[in-house]
Design a protein that fits this description.
With 245 residues, the chain is an alpha+beta fold. 47% of the residues lie in helices and 21% in strands. It folds into two domains: 161 residues, no CATH class; 42 residues. A hairpin with a 7-residue loop joins strand 1 and strand 2. The longest helix has 47 residues.
Length: 245
Amino acid sequence: MTRDTSAVGALGALSWRGWVVLRDRALPGRRRGTLDHVLVGPGGVFVMSRTKWPGPVAVVDGVLNLGGRPHQRDVTDLAEAAAAVLALVPDVPVHPVFCIERHQPLTGWVRNVMLCATSNVEEILTSRPAVLGPEQVQQVAEMLASRLLPVPPAATESDAVTSTRSAAPWPVRILFQAAAMAVAALLVIGVLQTGVVNQISTVVGNFVTEVATVDDQPTRKPAQDEPRTSTRKRADQGKGKDQDK
């Protein structure tokens, strides 16, 4: 059976083991700041931020590098968020955890921040020394749930300080945009074609009506024939007079 290495699968496995998982929580007293996950278990409290990154991960001189680019700001924000949570439960160990969604296991530290992947986050968190019993886990979780309120749905990830969840990969975004543009183009073409067809039908109908009207009118001789006939008569009469003379 294939193991679920997604964030949902990893956190679900912890819930089955008696852990309490609080998702998308706001830090009290801060206008900007969102906690991806706050986990409470036998090993204490774990403030976890997760991001998607399939590429290489390295720690160089105490700085987290994803694909050769430093991400120390994310690590610093996460450490500060964990310190804010620690102020709410000063008697319980609070650990910041930076979790990357990937199949390859990941272990390490960036100063005081733990590194892991969704494929081995359960193993790393459950390996910490137990400091809380089952009842204490529930008590600490209830207290944190009352202080760390859920983020309103209107909040965006641009306002999140500790949230490092990446948007959809750029190829997916491009495909969605191309599909939307194609649908819009088809709708516009359909509207334009309907208008052109209606205009053509109107012009053709008017032309047919005019042709029928012309065919129904009686044929007349040009009005110029009468003056010409009168002129010829006067000329003939003149010739007769000259002959009489």
